[in-house]
Amino acid sequence: MSLTLRLMGAMMRLTVRPMMRRATDPQKMRHHFERAARRWFRPVPHMHAIPCQFPAPGSDLHAVRDALWVGAGPVMSDQVLLYLHGGGYIAGSPKTHQAMVARISRMTGLRAFVPDYRLAPEHPLPAALQDARAAHAHLLQRGYRPDQIILGGDSAGGGLALALLAELCQNSQPPAAAFALSPFCDLAFTGASVQGNGRRDHFFPGDRGPYLAQMILGDLAPDDPRASPLYANFPDCPPVLIQVSDAEILYDDARRMADKLHDAGAEVILQIWQDAPHVWQIFDGWFPEARAALRDVARFLQRFT
């Protein structure tokens, strides 16, 4: 482990973790996340983030959702990354994650479509999944075949990507591959690491899980596959890469999700990093473990590009 990671990890435990324990207002959490992204998430050379819109789900033919086309340097025209940002389903946006996504684009040549899906508690689940599904349909309408699309996401976005993956597999529209960074896969919070890493996690106290679930679940049961892909089915699943830290409360989400996909017959690569913070990849440019993890993502994706 690098000295930089140790120092930044200690700082996170002293500053971010107490804030997350007290946080109750989603609007303030969104504001803090957006401000932190501008300060800490470093831009990528030749990065571009182009605003766009796509048709929103539902019966209103004129309703649209916002999104960003994100890339860095030359990008391919015949393949695309559908990336779903994290933020616990209550915060985050394409802008908070555009730097990390641009780094993946620079490493792979993939252009990324990053939808601004609806957030809870104003729009509880399955609103986010409905928007992710609509974003995928939009890419199909633009001429991409299902096997020209790669799914990716982090944290809640990682769980969302896996929930969408399950639906696509069940509908015979599997993507070329998928990856999930520290995915949030079980809103029932049954993983042993929720309590076992409750004091070790850099960001999240384990006992805050039920409060978060109450905000984001709406009328869904915690084990509904649309909210918790750990309980979904994945027929004919494509290869999946999962990265997680052994210090996270979501460590068992990732481990059990890998087992679930493996039992479904999928090729699964589970990479476990030591004592890294939740979604450490987003700190690319600050400590070497972030860049190393993104290189592993890029190597995985290059098999399908």
TrEMBL record:
EC number assigned by the record: 3.1.1.83
Write down the Pfam families for this protein, in alphabetical order: Abhydrolase_3
UniProt lineage: Bacteria, Pseudomonadati, Pseudomonadota, Alphaproteobacteria, Rhodobacterales
Q: What is this protein called?
A: Monoterpene epsilon-lactone hydrolase
| Source superkingdom | Bacteria
Q: Which PROSITE patterns match?
A: LIPASE_GDXG_HIS
Q: What class of enzyme is it?
A: hydrolase
Which organism does this record belong to?
Answer: Thalassovita autumnalis
Which positions fall inside the Alpha/beta hydrolase fold-3 domain? 81-281
Keywords, A to Z, come to: Hydrolase
User: Which residues are listed as membrane-spanning?
Assistant: none
- The UniProt record lists the keyword Hydrolase: yes
Molecular function per GO: hydrolase activity
Q: Does this UniProt record's set of keywords contain Hydrolase?
A: yes
Q: Which InterPro entries match?
A: AB_hydrolase_3, AB_hydrolase_fold, GDXG_lipolytic_enzyme, Lipase_GDXG_HIS_AS
Family statement drawn from the similarity comment of this UniProt entry: Belongs to the 'GDXG' lipolytic enzyme family.
